[in-house]
TrEMBL record, chain A:
Keywords: Repeat. GO terms for molecular function: zinc ion binding. This is 6-bladed beta-propeller. CDD domains: NHL_like_3 (cd14956). The lineage of its organism: Bacteria, Pseudomonadati, Pseudomonadota, Gammaproteobacteria, Pseudomonadales. It comes from Marinobacter algicola DG893. NHL repeats lie at residues 44-82, 177-213.
UniProtKB/TrEMBL annotation, chain B:
One of its GO terms (molecular function) is metal ion binding. Keywords: Signal. It comes from the Bacteria. SUPFAM superfamilies: HMA, heavy metal-associated domain. InterPro entries: HMA_dom, HMA_dom_sf. Residues 1-20 form the signal peptide. This is HMA domain-containing protein.
Length: 311, 105
Protein backbone atom coordinates (compact mmCIF):
# COMPACT_ATOMS: atom_id res chain seq x y z
CA UNK A 1 0.00 0.00 0.00
CA UNK A 2 2.81 2.31 1.01
CA UNK A 3 4.55 1.43 -2.26
CA UNK A 4 1.41 2.29 -4.21
CA UNK A 5 1.20 5.65 -2.46
CA UNK A 6 4.83 6.38 -3.28
CA UNK A 7 4.28 5.40 -6.90
CA UNK A 8 1.19 7.64 -7.09
CA UNK A 9 3.16 10.53 -5.61
CA UNK A 10 5.98 10.06 -8.10
CA UNK A 11 3.50 9.78 -11.00
CA UNK A 12 1.73 12.94 -9.91
CA UNK A 13 5.03 14.76 -9.54
CA UNK A 14 6.15 13.53 -12.96
CA UNK A 15 2.88 14.61 -14.54
CA UNK A 16 3.12 18.04 -12.88
CA UNK A 17 6.68 18.49 -14.14
CA UNK A 18 5.69 17.39 -17.65
CA UNK A 19 2.71 19.74 -17.71
CA UNK A 20 4.85 22.60 -16.40
CA UNK A 21 7.45 21.97 -19.09
CA UNK A 22 4.78 21.82 -21.75
CA UNK A 23 3.17 24.97 -20.42
CA UNK A 24 6.46 26.83 -20.28
CA UNK A 25 7.34 25.67 -23.76
CA UNK A 26 4.05 27.06 -25.00
CA UNK A 27 4.51 30.35 -23.12
CA UNK A 28 1.30 29.81 -21.16
CA UNK A 29 2.75 29.98 -17.65
CA UNK A 30 3.43 33.61 -16.98
CA UNK A 31 2.42 35.53 -13.88
CA UNK A 32 2.09 38.85 -15.70
CA UNK A 33 -0.87 38.03 -17.90
CA UNK A 34 -3.15 40.87 -19.01
CA UNK A 35 -6.93 41.09 -19.34
CA UNK A 36 -8.21 40.59 -22.89
CA UNK A 37 -8.98 43.44 -25.27
CA UNK A 38 -12.51 44.39 -26.33
CA UNK A 39 -13.69 45.17 -29.81
CA UNK A 40 -14.61 48.86 -29.91
CA UNK A 41 -15.38 49.25 -33.61
CA UNK A 42 -16.00 47.07 -36.68
CA UNK A 43 -17.05 47.72 -40.24
CA UNK A 44 -17.39 45.97 -43.58
CA UNK A 45 -19.34 43.24 -45.32
CA UNK A 46 -18.85 41.01 -48.34
CA UNK A 47 -18.94 42.78 -51.69
CA UNK A 48 -16.97 44.84 -54.14
CA UNK A 49 -18.21 48.36 -53.42
CA UNK A 50 -16.48 50.96 -51.26
CA UNK A 51 -16.27 49.70 -47.70
CA UNK A 52 -17.02 46.14 -48.78
CA UNK A 53 -14.47 43.33 -48.92
CA UNK A 54 -13.91 40.03 -50.61
CA UNK A 55 -11.23 38.30 -48.51
CA UNK A 56 -9.40 40.94 -46.48
CA UNK A 57 -5.91 39.52 -45.98
CA UNK A 58 -3.67 42.35 -44.80
CA UNK A 59 -3.74 45.51 -42.72
CA UNK A 60 -1.44 48.46 -42.02
CA UNK A 61 -2.14 51.59 -40.02
CA UNK A 62 -0.80 55.15 -39.76
CA UNK A 63 -1.66 57.81 -37.19
CA UNK A 64 -4.96 58.55 -38.90
CA UNK A 65 -5.66 55.92 -41.57
CA UNK A 66 -6.26 52.18 -41.93
CA UNK A 67 -5.09 50.36 -45.10
CA UNK A 68 -6.71 47.06 -46.03
CA UNK A 69 -5.52 44.46 -48.56
CA UNK A 70 -8.82 43.47 -50.17
CA UNK A 71 -7.45 40.33 -51.82
CA UNK A 72 -10.16 39.00 -54.13
CA UNK A 73 -11.12 42.51 -55.15
CA UNK A 74 -7.42 43.01 -56.02
CA UNK A 75 -7.24 46.44 -54.41
CA UNK A 76 -6.20 48.43 -51.38
CA UNK A 77 -8.91 50.29 -49.48
CA UNK A 78 -8.16 53.17 -47.14
CA UNK A 79 -10.36 54.33 -44.27
CA UNK A 80 -10.17 56.88 -41.52
CA UNK A 81 -10.05 55.50 -38.02
CA UNK A 82 -13.81 55.77 -37.62
CA UNK A 83 -14.28 53.41 -40.55
CA UNK A 84 -15.21 56.01 -43.14
CA UNK A 85 -14.08 55.06 -46.65
CA UNK A 86 -11.50 57.45 -48.10
CA UNK A 87 -10.07 55.89 -51.27
CA UNK A 88 -9.18 52.70 -53.10
CA UNK A 89 -6.33 51.95 -55.46
CA UNK A 90 -4.26 49.26 -57.11
CA UNK A 91 -7.13 47.63 -59.00
CA UNK A 92 -5.31 47.55 -62.32
CA UNK A 93 -2.05 46.32 -60.81
CA UNK A 94 -2.63 43.95 -57.93
CA UNK A 95 -3.18 40.19 -58.05
CA UNK A 96 -3.62 39.02 -54.47
CA UNK A 97 -2.29 41.56 -51.94
CA UNK A 98 -1.36 40.07 -48.56
CA UNK A 99 0.33 41.26 -45.31
CA UNK A 100 1.51 44.82 -45.97
CA UNK A 101 3.76 47.35 -44.29
CA UNK A 102 4.07 51.14 -44.29
CA UNK A 103 7.42 52.92 -44.11
CA UNK A 104 8.52 56.42 -45.09
CA UNK A 105 5.25 57.48 -46.75
CA UNK A 106 5.22 54.30 -48.83
CA UNK A 107 2.94 51.28 -48.75
CA UNK A 108 4.68 47.95 -49.49
CA UNK A 109 2.35 45.24 -50.75
CA UNK A 110 3.44 41.63 -51.35
CA UNK A 111 1.55 40.12 -54.27
CA UNK A 112 0.92 36.41 -53.76
CA UNK A 113 -0.05 35.84 -57.38
CA UNK A 114 2.40 38.11 -59.22
CA UNK A 115 5.45 37.31 -57.06
CA UNK A 116 6.54 40.91 -56.59
CA UNK A 117 6.42 43.62 -53.95
CA UNK A 118 4.35 46.58 -55.12
CA UNK A 119 5.21 50.00 -53.76
CA UNK A 120 2.62 52.79 -53.61
CA UNK A 121 2.58 56.24 -52.09
CA UNK A 122 0.06 56.50 -49.30
CA UNK A 123 -2.10 58.55 -51.65
CA UNK A 124 -2.26 55.53 -53.95
CA UNK A 125 0.16 56.47 -56.72
CA UNK A 126 2.11 53.52 -58.04
CA UNK A 127 5.89 53.72 -57.58
CA UNK A 128 7.42 50.41 -58.60
CA UNK A 129 7.42 46.62 -58.40
CA UNK A 130 10.36 45.14 -56.51
CA UNK A 131 11.51 41.72 -57.68
CA UNK A 132 14.33 39.58 -56.37
CA UNK A 133 17.26 38.39 -58.47
CA UNK A 134 16.26 34.80 -57.86
CA UNK A 135 12.47 35.24 -57.89
CA UNK A 136 9.87 35.25 -55.14
CA UNK A 137 7.34 32.44 -54.82
CA UNK A 138 4.09 33.74 -53.38
CA UNK A 139 5.32 36.35 -50.89
CA UNK A 140 2.81 36.50 -48.05
CA UNK A 141 4.13 39.28 -45.84
CA UNK A 142 6.96 41.70 -45.25
CA UNK A 143 8.48 44.34 -43.03
CA UNK A 144 10.62 47.33 -43.93
CA UNK A 145 13.70 48.03 -41.85
CA UNK A 146 14.82 51.52 -40.82
CA UNK A 147 17.52 51.43 -43.51
CA UNK A 148 14.91 50.86 -46.23
CA UNK A 149 15.79 47.21 -46.84
CA UNK A 150 13.00 44.66 -46.85
CA UNK A 151 12.47 41.42 -45.00
CA UNK A 152 10.07 39.24 -46.94
CA UNK A 153 8.21 36.10 -45.91
CA UNK A 154 8.45 34.23 -49.21
CA UNK A 155 5.70 31.81 -48.32
CA UNK A 156 5.92 29.15 -51.03
CA UNK A 157 9.64 29.80 -51.32
CA UNK A 158 9.89 28.49 -47.72
CA UNK A 159 12.29 31.21 -46.76
CA UNK A 160 12.79 34.70 -45.39
CA UNK A 161 14.62 37.03 -47.74
CA UNK A 162 16.48 40.22 -46.85
CA UNK A 163 16.30 42.46 -49.87
CA UNK A 164 17.83 45.77 -50.91
CA UNK A 165 15.29 48.18 -52.43
CA UNK A 166 16.75 47.45 -55.89
CA UNK A 167 15.97 43.75 -55.52
CA UNK A 168 19.43 42.51 -54.60
CA UNK A 169 19.22 39.59 -52.21
CA UNK A 170 21.34 40.49 -49.17
CA UNK A 171 20.62 37.33 -47.25
CA UNK A 172 18.22 34.44 -47.23
CA UNK A 173 17.14 32.19 -44.38
CA UNK A 174 15.82 29.00 -45.92
CA UNK A 175 15.09 25.43 -45.03
CA UNK A 176 11.89 23.54 -44.55
CA UNK A 177 11.52 21.82 -41.20
CA UNK A 178 10.68 22.28 -37.56
CA UNK A 179 14.14 23.05 -36.19
CA UNK A 180 15.36 26.49 -35.14
CA UNK A 181 15.53 28.74 -38.19
CA UNK A 182 13.59 26.32 -40.38
CA UNK A 183 10.26 27.36 -41.87
CA UNK A 184 7.00 25.82 -42.94
CA UNK A 185 5.20 28.39 -45.09
CA UNK A 186 6.26 31.63 -43.36
CA UNK A 187 3.48 34.20 -43.70
CA UNK A 188 4.63 37.49 -42.22
CA UNK A 189 7.43 39.48 -40.54
CA UNK A 190 7.53 42.27 -37.96
CA UNK A 191 10.50 44.37 -36.87
CA UNK A 192 11.45 44.54 -33.19
CA UNK A 193 12.46 47.88 -31.59
CA UNK A 194 16.10 46.70 -31.44
CA UNK A 195 16.18 46.01 -35.19
CA UNK A 196 15.70 42.28 -34.81
CA UNK A 197 12.63 40.63 -36.27
CA UNK A 198 9.87 38.13 -35.70
CA UNK A 199 8.70 35.64 -38.31
CA UNK A 200 5.17 34.23 -38.37
CA UNK A 201 6.15 30.65 -39.20
CA UNK A 202 2.66 29.86 -40.49
CA UNK A 203 2.29 26.11 -40.72
CA UNK A 204 4.89 25.44 -38.05
CA UNK A 205 2.37 27.07 -35.69
CA UNK A 206 4.96 29.28 -34.07
CA UNK A 207 6.77 32.60 -33.96
CA UNK A 208 10.52 32.71 -34.50
CA UNK A 209 12.63 35.60 -33.24
CA UNK A 210 15.93 36.75 -34.81
CA UNK A 211 18.37 39.40 -33.58
CA UNK A 212 19.46 42.48 -35.59
CA UNK A 213 22.25 40.41 -37.20
CA UNK A 214 19.75 37.81 -38.30
CA UNK A 215 20.80 35.19 -35.77
CA UNK A 216 18.12 32.97 -34.31
CA UNK A 217 17.10 33.98 -30.77
CA UNK A 218 14.08 31.90 -29.79
CA UNK A 219 10.83 30.34 -30.96
CA UNK A 220 7.50 29.84 -29.28
CA UNK A 221 4.10 28.30 -29.95
CA UNK A 222 3.00 25.00 -28.42
CA UNK A 223 5.29 22.47 -26.75
CA UNK A 224 8.87 23.20 -27.78
CA UNK A 225 7.54 25.18 -30.77
CA UNK A 226 7.89 22.17 -33.03
CA UNK A 227 4.74 22.23 -35.13
CA UNK A 228 2.41 21.03 -32.38
CA UNK A 229 -0.79 22.99 -32.74
CA UNK A 230 -3.75 23.54 -30.46
CA UNK A 231 -6.14 26.01 -28.86
CA UNK A 232 -4.34 26.55 -25.56
CA UNK A 233 -2.74 29.74 -24.31
CA UNK A 234 0.47 30.38 -26.20
CA UNK A 235 -0.26 27.68 -28.77
CA UNK A 236 -1.23 28.38 -32.36
CA UNK A 237 -3.08 26.74 -35.18
CA UNK A 238 -1.54 28.46 -38.21
CA UNK A 239 -0.03 31.90 -37.68
CA UNK A 240 -1.06 34.22 -40.50
CA UNK A 241 0.29 37.59 -39.34
CA UNK A 242 2.59 39.17 -36.75
CA UNK A 243 2.94 42.75 -35.50
CA UNK A 244 5.00 44.56 -32.88
CA UNK A 245 3.31 47.08 -30.61
CA UNK A 246 4.27 49.46 -27.87
CA UNK A 247 7.18 48.40 -25.67
CA UNK A 248 7.97 45.65 -28.14
CA UNK A 249 5.00 43.43 -27.36
CA UNK A 250 4.22 40.91 -30.09
CA UNK A 251 0.78 40.26 -31.57
CA UNK A 252 0.09 37.17 -33.67
CA UNK A 253 -2.98 36.27 -35.72
CA UNK A 254 -3.85 32.70 -34.73
CA UNK A 255 -6.08 31.91 -37.70
CA UNK A 256 -7.80 28.61 -36.93
CA UNK A 257 -8.27 29.59 -33.27
CA UNK A 258 -10.02 32.83 -34.29
CA UNK A 259 -7.92 35.00 -32.00
CA UNK A 260 -5.10 37.48 -31.75
CA UNK A 261 -2.55 36.50 -29.11
CA UNK A 262 -0.34 39.03 -27.37
CA UNK A 263 3.11 38.20 -25.99
CA UNK A 264 6.02 39.97 -24.40
CA UNK A 265 9.01 40.65 -26.64
CA UNK A 266 10.46 37.39 -25.26
CA UNK A 267 7.42 35.33 -26.13
CA UNK A 268 5.65 35.12 -22.78
CA UNK A 269 1.91 34.90 -23.18
CA UNK A 270 -0.02 38.01 -22.11
CA UNK A 271 -3.56 37.79 -23.41
CA UNK A 272 -5.80 36.77 -26.31
CA UNK A 273 -8.91 38.18 -27.93
CA UNK A 274 -10.90 37.71 -31.12
CA UNK A 275 -14.23 37.24 -32.86
CA UNK A 276 -16.18 34.05 -33.35
CA UNK A 277 -16.98 33.69 -37.06
CA UNK A 278 -20.51 34.58 -38.10
CA UNK A 279 -19.91 32.90 -41.48
CA UNK A 280 -18.08 29.76 -42.57
CA UNK A 281 -14.32 30.02 -42.12
CA UNK A 282 -12.08 31.72 -39.61
CA UNK A 283 -11.63 35.28 -38.49
CA UNK A 284 -8.14 36.27 -37.24
CA UNK A 285 -6.25 36.83 -40.48
CA UNK A 286 -4.03 39.89 -40.05
CA UNK A 287 -3.08 42.29 -37.28
CA UNK A 288 -1.51 45.74 -36.96
CA UNK A 289 -0.85 48.06 -34.02
CA UNK A 290 -0.89 51.84 -34.20
CA UNK A 291 1.29 54.31 -32.34
CA UNK A 292 -1.25 54.57 -29.52
CA UNK A 293 -1.27 50.84 -28.89
CA UNK A 294 -4.68 50.27 -30.46
CA UNK A 295 -4.86 46.92 -32.21
CA UNK A 296 -6.48 46.58 -35.64
CA UNK A 297 -7.30 43.32 -37.37
CA UNK A 298 -9.07 41.96 -40.40
CA UNK A 299 -11.78 39.38 -39.93
CA UNK A 300 -11.47 37.07 -42.92
CA UNK A 301 -14.64 34.99 -42.61
CA UNK A 302 -16.90 37.99 -42.04
CA UNK A 303 -15.15 40.47 -44.34
CA UNK A 304 -14.69 43.08 -41.63
CA UNK A 305 -12.12 45.40 -40.11
CA UNK A 306 -12.00 45.31 -36.30
CA UNK A 307 -10.54 47.68 -33.73
CA UNK A 308 -9.44 46.38 -30.31
CA UNK A 309 -8.59 48.20 -27.13
CA UNK A 310 -7.55 46.97 -23.68
CA UNK A 311 -10.36 46.54 -21.13
CA UNK B 1 -39.36 42.90 -84.94
CA UNK B 2 -38.89 39.43 -86.38
CA UNK B 3 -35.23 40.16 -87.09
CA UNK B 4 -34.70 41.38 -83.53
CA UNK B 5 -36.31 38.26 -82.09
CA UNK B 6 -34.20 36.06 -84.35
CA UNK B 7 -31.02 37.77 -83.28
CA UNK B 8 -31.96 37.45 -79.61
CA UNK B 9 -32.75 33.77 -80.05
CA UNK B 10 -29.49 33.18 -81.90
CA UNK B 11 -27.53 34.96 -79.15
CA UNK B 12 -29.28 32.87 -76.51
CA UNK B 13 -28.59 29.62 -78.32
CA UNK B 14 -24.99 30.64 -78.85
CA UNK B 15 -24.43 31.55 -75.18
CA UNK B 16 -26.07 28.32 -73.95
CA UNK B 17 -23.97 26.22 -76.30
CA UNK B 18 -20.84 28.13 -75.24
CA UNK B 19 -21.65 27.43 -71.59
CA UNK B 20 -22.35 23.80 -72.33
CA UNK B 21 -19.05 23.50 -74.19
CA UNK B 22 -17.04 24.42 -71.12
CA UNK B 23 -15.58 21.64 -69.04
CA UNK B 24 -16.10 21.64 -65.28
CA UNK B 25 -14.26 19.72 -62.60
CA UNK B 26 -14.72 19.33 -58.88
CA UNK B 27 -11.64 18.62 -56.77
CA UNK B 28 -11.73 17.64 -53.13
CA UNK B 29 -8.70 18.98 -51.25
CA UNK B 30 -8.14 18.44 -47.55
CA UNK B 31 -7.27 21.33 -45.22
CA UNK B 32 -8.34 24.20 -47.46
CA UNK B 33 -9.30 26.89 -45.00
CA UNK B 34 -6.64 29.55 -44.86
CA UNK B 35 -6.13 31.91 -47.79
CA UNK B 36 -2.40 31.16 -47.94
CA UNK B 37 -3.23 27.60 -49.01
CA UNK B 38 -6.41 28.33 -50.96
CA UNK B 39 -4.64 30.96 -53.05
CA UNK B 40 -1.68 28.65 -53.52
CA UNK B 41 -3.91 26.07 -55.16
CA UNK B 42 -5.73 28.68 -57.23
CA UNK B 43 -2.44 30.05 -58.49
CA UNK B 44 -1.24 26.67 -59.68
CA UNK B 45 -4.54 25.64 -61.28
CA UNK B 46 -4.73 28.96 -63.13
CA UNK B 47 -1.45 28.13 -64.86
CA UNK B 48 -3.01 25.12 -66.61
CA UNK B 49 -3.91 25.76 -70.25
CA UNK B 50 -7.54 26.65 -70.81
CA UNK B 51 -8.52 27.32 -67.21
CA UNK B 52 -11.00 30.19 -67.16
CA UNK B 53 -12.21 30.05 -63.60
CA UNK B 54 -11.20 28.57 -60.26
CA UNK B 55 -13.65 28.63 -57.37
CA UNK B 56 -12.61 27.64 -53.88
CA UNK B 57 -15.25 26.56 -51.42
CA UNK B 58 -13.31 26.82 -48.19
CA UNK B 59 -16.09 25.41 -46.01
CA UNK B 60 -16.39 22.17 -48.00
CA UNK B 61 -12.68 21.99 -48.94
CA UNK B 62 -13.67 21.78 -52.59
CA UNK B 63 -12.15 23.47 -55.64
CA UNK B 64 -14.22 23.90 -58.78
CA UNK B 65 -12.35 24.41 -62.03
CA UNK B 66 -13.75 25.57 -65.38
CA UNK B 67 -11.88 25.13 -68.66
CA UNK B 68 -12.82 26.51 -72.04
CA UNK B 69 -14.03 24.29 -74.85
CA UNK B 70 -11.49 21.80 -76.07
CA UNK B 71 -9.43 21.89 -72.88
CA UNK B 72 -9.52 19.23 -70.23
CA UNK B 73 -8.09 18.76 -66.77
CA UNK B 74 -6.77 15.28 -66.17
CA UNK B 75 -6.66 13.78 -62.72
CA UNK B 76 -2.88 13.72 -62.99
CA UNK B 77 -2.74 17.46 -63.79
CA UNK B 78 -5.05 18.21 -60.89
CA UNK B 79 -3.04 16.04 -58.52
CA UNK B 80 0.21 17.69 -59.56
CA UNK B 81 -1.17 21.22 -59.06
CA UNK B 82 -2.57 20.32 -55.66
CA UNK B 83 0.67 18.56 -54.66
CA UNK B 84 2.74 21.59 -55.70
CA UNK B 85 0.55 23.72 -53.50
CA UNK B 86 1.39 21.44 -50.56
CA UNK B 87 -1.88 19.55 -50.31
CA UNK B 88 -3.35 16.18 -51.20
CA UNK B 89 -6.06 15.60 -53.76
CA UNK B 90 -8.91 13.81 -51.99
CA UNK B 91 -11.27 13.40 -54.93
CA UNK B 92 -11.57 14.26 -58.61
CA UNK B 93 -14.70 14.41 -60.73
CA UNK B 94 -15.82 15.88 -64.01
CA UNK B 95 -19.17 17.55 -63.50
CA UNK B 96 -21.86 18.99 -65.75
CA UNK B 97 -22.71 22.66 -66.27
CA UNK B 98 -22.36 25.58 -63.90
CA UNK B 99 -20.87 24.49 -60.59
CA UNK B 100 -21.61 27.69 -58.66
CA UNK B 101 -20.81 28.68 -55.09
CA UNK B 102 -17.48 29.48 -53.49
CA UNK B 103 -15.25 32.40 -54.29
CA UNK B 104 -14.56 33.11 -57.90
CA UNK B 105 -11.01 33.69 -59.00
Amino acid sequence: MKKMGKRFAYSTLGLAIALTLLGCAGGAINWNQEPPYSRSLAWGEKGSGPGQFNDPTGIAVTADEVYIADARNSRIQVFDKQGKFRRAFGGDILGRPMNMDIAGNRLYVPDYFKDVIHVFTLAGEYCEAIKTDDGLTSPGGLAVRDDGTLLIADTYGQRVVHLAPDGEVLRSWAGTGIGAGDFNYPTDIAIAPDGGFYVADGYNDRIQQFDPDGEFVRKWGGPFAMNIYGPFKGWFTTVTSVAVGLEGSVYAADFYNDRIQKFTAEGDYLTAFGSEPANAGHTAMAVAVDNEGTVWSVNFADNRVEKWQPD
Amino acid sequence: MFTKMSLLLAALVFSVSALAAENHYRLGVNGLACPFCAYGIEKRLNKIDGVTEVRVDIGDSVVQVTLKEGNTLTEEQARRAVDEAGFTLRSYAEVDGETGGGNAE
